[in-house]
C-alpha cells in the first residue's frame, strides 16, 4: 500500500501542500513536521521521501546534518543551554548542573516519563544578556539560580510554555551607541522610491560611488557584487539575506531583525530592483525561530501597501517578493554557498568555488547574497547618495559598523561607530576597565592583546563581521581558545578531511594539555595542525579553526606553559590502566598481567 495514501497523510499532507510538494523546501517541510510531531519519526521520513520523490537516504541525510532536527523523542520540554564562551564566563556551567540535579537527569538524557531533555548548543545570539537557554526554540535570558529553580518547577508541573512568566522570554535590544543607521528614522518605502527615481543603473552607480563594502566580514564591494550578478547570463535572479549569524559573540542581526526589519526588507527590494530579481529569500537561523511570525506579519503588511508583490509602488513590471526560510542549527551555513545548499533542501556543505553565487547561485541562477547589516545600510545610500556615504568612516572602509559587544564590560550590547574607531575608545564606552584581551570577529576572528588596543576597526586594520568579546585580566586565555576549538570541532560539516580530522586532533591536544599531560610535543603539533588546516581546508571554517590557538599561543603563551608538567612526550591514554577490569575478571594482578613500562 502506498505510503502517500496511508493515514499519515492527515498529518503531513497539509504541510506538503503548503510547500507545493517541492523537494527544494525539504528543510521547511521537516521543520513543520517536527513542530507538529515533536520529532521526525521513521514513518514520516518514509512518507516524505515518497511524496517528494526523494530517496529515503536524502531525507535522512538532511535530518542527520542539522543539530535542531530530531529523529527520536526529545521530550515535551526541549531545553538547550547556550554554551558560548561568554555564557561560561557568566556561570552557565553551574546553572546547567543545578537544573540537571533538580530534575534528576544527565546531560543529553530524556527523562523516563518523556517529559524533558537538557543539553547544550552553540551560541544562541544572546551574549549581551546571558546566560541563556532555549526551551522549545524560545530564548530564556539572564539565567540565575532562582530562575533555574522556577523553570524546574514549571517543567515538573507541566505548565504550558504560554503560561510561563513573560519576563523569562524578554529579549532586549541593548543599543548603547547609535550612528547613521540606528539613529535615522525611515518611512517605509521612502528609500525604495528614491531608488526607483534613480533607475536600476542609477542606483547601482550610487552603490559603486559609495565604496560600500559588505558587512559579513569578507568586505567585498557591494556595488561590484550587484553589478556582476546583474550582468551574469540567466533569466532568473535571486536576492538572499544571510541572517544565519552563528559566529560566537555576534547578535547585531538579532537586533536589526527585531527593531529594524523594515530596513532589511527594503534593502532586499532595492537589491532586487537593481539586479532584476523577482524573489528574495531570508535565511533565518534556527535560534531566531521566535521571530518568525512577527517577520512574516511585516512582510504581509508590505504586500498590502504595494512595497512587495506585483508592480511595486505602481512601477509596472517591478515584481519582487520575499520568503523566509528557517535554518536548523548549523554554523557552517553562515558560509554563502553552504547556505544556498541548505535553501535548496540539502545538507549545508560549502560548494567548490568558482563558480561563485553571482553567476551560479540558488538553483544555479545568478544570486546576490548579502548579510542583514549590508542590506539595511543599502537604504541609507538610496536615501542620501553614494557621495554622502563615502564621506563617512575611512577611505578604504566607508560608513559605519555595528558591533556586538559582550564579555567583561559594564554595558554589553550594540554599538554603532564610523569605521576607524580605536579599540581603546570602544572599551572605554562599554565600561571595560581591566581588559586583557579582545576577540574581534568571533571565534574565527583576531585575538588582540593589551598592547594592540590602539588599533582601529577597519578593513585596512582589524576587520570584523561585528563581534567583539572582552576578556578581563582574570580570564584564562588557554580556556578561551579551548572553548573555541571545541566549537569548531562540533560545527565542522565533515566534508573535508583536514577540517574533520584536524579539529578533532586539536581538541584532543588541548584537552591533553588541560589534563596536565602536555609537553613541547603537543605545542608543536598545535602549530603544525593550524598551518595544515589553514592551507588545506575546503572552506573558511576549517581555514580559521586553529586561529584562536595560534593567536593565544603568540600573545598569551604563559597560560599554556604553566600547564606543561612534563618535558618529554607522555601518552594521553594509559593502556595498562585500561586493562584493569580484565585483570579483575581474571582475578590476576601479578607482574605478568601488567604491561611493561618499555611498551
Question: What does it look like?
Answer:
The chain has 599 residues and is α/β, with parallel strands linked by helices. It folds into five domains: 64 residues; 96 residues, Glutaredoxin, CATH 3.40.30.10; 215 residues, Rossmann fold; 76 residues, Ubiquitin-like (UB roll), CATH 3.10.20.600; 84 residues, Up-down Bundle (de novo design (two linked rop proteins)). The strands form three sheets. It has a six-stranded mixed sheet. A four-stranded mixed sheet has the order 2-1-3-4, with helices on one face. Helix 12 links the parallel strand 7 and strand 8. Helix 8 crosses helix 11 and helix 18 runs antiparallel to helix 19. The protein is globular, with a radius of gyration of 25 Å. The N terminus is likely disordered.
Q: How many domains, in number, for the residues?
A: 5
Q: How does the helix and strand content classify structurally?
A: alpha/beta
Total count of helical runs of at least 4 residues: 24
Roughly how many Å is the radius of gyration? Answer: 25 Å
Q: What number is the mean pLDDT? A: 94
Overall body shape:
globular
CATH class of the largest domain: Alpha Beta
Helix content: 40-55%
Count every beta strand, where a strand is a DSSP E run of 2 or more residues: 14
Provide the CATH architecture of the largest domain. Answer: 3-Layer(aba) Sandwich
Unreliably modeled segments: 1-5
The CATH topology of the largest domain corresponds to Rossmann fold
The major β-sheet equals: 6 strands, mixed
Distance between the termini: 62 Å
Strand content: 5-15%
> What's the CATH H-level superfamily name of the largest domain?
NADH-ubiquinone oxidoreductase 51kDa subunit
Strand arrangement in the largest pleated sheet: 5-11-10-14-12-13
Amino acid at each position: 500500500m502506498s505510503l502517500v495514501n496511508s493515514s499519515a497523510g492527515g498529518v503531513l499532507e497539509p504541510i506538503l501542500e503548503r510547500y507545493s510538494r517541492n523537494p527544494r523546501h525539504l528543510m521547511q517541510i521537516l521543520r513543520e513536521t517536527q513542530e507538529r510531531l515533536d520529532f521526525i519519526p521513521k514513518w514520516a521520513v518514509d512518507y516524505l521521501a515518497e511524496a517528494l520523490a526523494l530517496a529515503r537516504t536524502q531525507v535522512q541525510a538532511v535530518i542527520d546534518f542539522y543539530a535542531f532536527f530530531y529523529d527520536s523523542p526529545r521530550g515535551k520540554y526541549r531545553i538547550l543551554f547556550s554554551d558560548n564562551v561568554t555564557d561560561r564566563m557568566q556561570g552557565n556551567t553551574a546553572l546547567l548542573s543545578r537544573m540537571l540535579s533538580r530534575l534528576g537527569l544527565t546531560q543529553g538524557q530524556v527523562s523516563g516519563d518523556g517529559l524533558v531533555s537538557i543539553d547544550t548548543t552553540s551560541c544562541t545570539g544572546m551574549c549581551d544578556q546571558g546566560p541563556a537557554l532555549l526551551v522549545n526554540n524560545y530564548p530564556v535570558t539572564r539565567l540565575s539560580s532562582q530562575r533555574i529553580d522556577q523553570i524546574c518547577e514549571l517543567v515538573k508541573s507541566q505548565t504550558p510554555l504560554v503560561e510561563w512568566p513573560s519576563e523569562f522570554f524578554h529579549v532586549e535590544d541593548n543599543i548603547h551607541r547609535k550612528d547613521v543607521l540606528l539613529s535615522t528614522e525611515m518611512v517605509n518605502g521612502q528609500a525604495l522610491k528614491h531608488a526607483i527615481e534613480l533607475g536600476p543603473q542609477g542606483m547601482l552607480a550610487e552603490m559603486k560611488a559609495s565604496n560600500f563594502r559588505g558587512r559579513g566580514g569578507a568586505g567585498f564591494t557591494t556595488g561590484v557584487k550587484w553589478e556582476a550578478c546583474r550582468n551574469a547570463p540567466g533569466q532568473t535572479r535571486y536576492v538572499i539575506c544571510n541572517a544565519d549569524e552563528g559566529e560566537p559573540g555576534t547578535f547585531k542581526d538579532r537586533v536589526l531583525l527585531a527593531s529594524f526589519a523594515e530596513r532589511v526588507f527594503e534593502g532586499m527590494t532595492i537589491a532586487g530592483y537593481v539586479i532584476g530579481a523577482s524573489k528574495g529569500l531570508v535565511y533565518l537561523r534556527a535560534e531566531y525561530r521566535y521571530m518568525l511570525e512577527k517577520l512574516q506579519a511585516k512582510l504581509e503588511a508590505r504586500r498590502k501597501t504595494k512595497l512587495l508583490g506585483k508592480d511595486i509602488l505602481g512601477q509596472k513590471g517591478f515584481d519582487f517578493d520575499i520568503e523566509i526560510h528557517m535554518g536548523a542549527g548549523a554554523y557552517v551555513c553562515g558560509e554563502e554557498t553552504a547556505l544556498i545548499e541548505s535553501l535548496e533542501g540539502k545538507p549545508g556543505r560549502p560548494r567548490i568555488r568558482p563558480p561563485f553565487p553571482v553567476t551560479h547561485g540558488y538553483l544555479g541562477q545568478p544570486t546576490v547574497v548579502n548579510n542583514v547589516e549590508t542590506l539595511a545600510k543599502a537604504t541609507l545610500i538610496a536615501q542620501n547618495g553614494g557621495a554622502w556615504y563615502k564621506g563617512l568612516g575611512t577611505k578604504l572602509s566607508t560608513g559605519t559598523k555595528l558591533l556586538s559587544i559582550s564579555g567583561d564590560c559594564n554595558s554589553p550590547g550594540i554599538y554603532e561607530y564610523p569605521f576607524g574607531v580605536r579599540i581603546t575608545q570602544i572599551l572605554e564606552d562599554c565600561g571595560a576597565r581591566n581588559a586583557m584581551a579582545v576577540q574581534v570577529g568571533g571565534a574565527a576572528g583576531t585575538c588582540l592583546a593589551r598592547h594592540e588596543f590602539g588599533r582601529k576597526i577597519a578593513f585596512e586594520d582589524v576587520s570584523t563581521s561585528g563581534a567583539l568579546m572582552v576578556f578581563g585580566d582574570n580570564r584564562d586565555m588557554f580556556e578561551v581558545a579551548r572553548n573555541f576549538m571545541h566549537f569548531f570541532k562540533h560545527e565542522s560539516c565533515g566534508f573535508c578531511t583536514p577540517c574533520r580530522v584536524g579539529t578533532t586532533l586539536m581538541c584532543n591536544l588541548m584537552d591533553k594539555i588541560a589534563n596536565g599531560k602536555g609537553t613541547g610535543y603537543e605545542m608543536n603539533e598545535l602549530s603544525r595542525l593550524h598551518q595544515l588546516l589553514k592551507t588545506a581546508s575546503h572552506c573558511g571554517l576549517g581555514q580559521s579553526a586553529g586561529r584562536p590557538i595560534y593567536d593565544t599561543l603568540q600573545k598569551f603563551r604563559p597560560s599554556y606553559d604553566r600547564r606543561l608538567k612534563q618535558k618529554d612526550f607522555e601518552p594521553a591514554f594509559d593502556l595498562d590502566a585500561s586493562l584493569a577490569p580484565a585483570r579483575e575478571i581474571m582475578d590476576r594482578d601479578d607482574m605478568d598481567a601488567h604491561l611493561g613500562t618499555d611498551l
